[in-house]
Amino acid sequence: MAKSHATDPGNISPLEAVEGLKALAHPARLQIMDWLRDPHGEFSQWEPIADRDEVGVCVSHLQAKSGLAQSTVSSYMATLERAGLVRSTRIGKWIHYRRDEDVMSQLAEVLRGAQRP
Q1: Could you write out the DSSP letters of every residue in 97-108?
Q2: Distance CA 90, CA 96 (A)
Q3: I need a labelling partner for 74 at 20 to 30 A (CA). Which of 4, 23, 81, 95 fits?
Q4: What is the pTM of this model?
Q5: 53-57 long-range contacts, Cβ below 8 Å, gap at least 24?
Q6: Residue 26 and residue 18: Cα distance in Å, rounded?
Q7: Torsion of CA 82, 72, 89, 106, to 10 degrees
């Protein structure tokens, strides 16, 4: 979704919507996206490395909460990022992820039928 999102933030194409839905179709990726909706509450037991509102959650905290291998979490996050659902920020050696709420809202509009393919 990232390509047209950058040029036309108010409208995602049907193909981009499909890619977003495919990325969310895996239970673990869907769970991660749910956690990222409330990063302060869901990750309160871990001391943030950076501002969670600005850059999101460190991949090491996603790995710790999920119990998945770091490589698996990184792969899942790359899939979500390619679909435009999350944005990444590197701080030192750590990658942080946060939801792209604009894209999530657009995807929800597609699902509500506000945009017809």
Answers
A1: EEE-HHHHHHHH
A2: 6
A3: 4
A4: 0.85
A5: 54/89, 55/89, 55/91, 55/96, 55/98, 56/86, 56/87, 56/88, 56/89, 56/96, 56/97, 56/98, 56/99, 57/96, 57/97, 57/98
A6: 14
A7: 40
Overall average pLDDT of the 83-91 stretch: 96
Tokens 């049907």 sit at which residue?
14
| Distance from C-alpha of 28 to C-alpha of 2, rounded to nearest angstrom | 22
Report which residue type is found at 60.
S
Q: How far apart are CA 89 and CA 53, in angstroms?
A: 12
Rounded Cα gap, residues 84 and 78, in angstroms: 10
Residue 77 confidence (pLDDT) above 90: yes
Amino acid symbol at 44: S
